Amino acid sequence: MLDARPRFQATPDAHRALLAAFMQAAGRADRDAMKALLSPDVSLVSDGGGKTPSFHRILRGAGRIAGVFWSVEHANQGQVEYRMARINGEAGLLRYVNGKIESAQSFLIESGKIVAVFVVRNPDKLAGAPREL
């Protein structure tokens, strides 16, 4: 449970640096590199708003979360790009597939590891993001 953990949140610079490393690993579909940046008990929450497919439950575990990012890259080889963006006041990632916005991702980082990933795929909530690269 996230609330039971001691909190040692990253500085803004450390947050951006960790996300840049994760973005590069995800772009290469490098599972091991992604897993190294994720807490072993990382969680992923996805919001499709009933308008686009998303996970209907919280996913947990570094291997599973790295596998989700790996799967997106392999299903869309050469068509996935990440851009760093400000999401909810912190550095986050926008993911584009075939040049179109697919999701906005925010991250909770503690003690140098990603402990939670929040993925918004609901097109209504993505309205403010740049639609195309």
UniProtKB/TrEMBL annotation:
GO terms for molecular function: sigma factor activity. This is SnoaL-like domain-containing protein. The lineage of its organism: Bacteria, Pseudomonadati, Pseudomonadota, Betaproteobacteria, Burkholderiales.
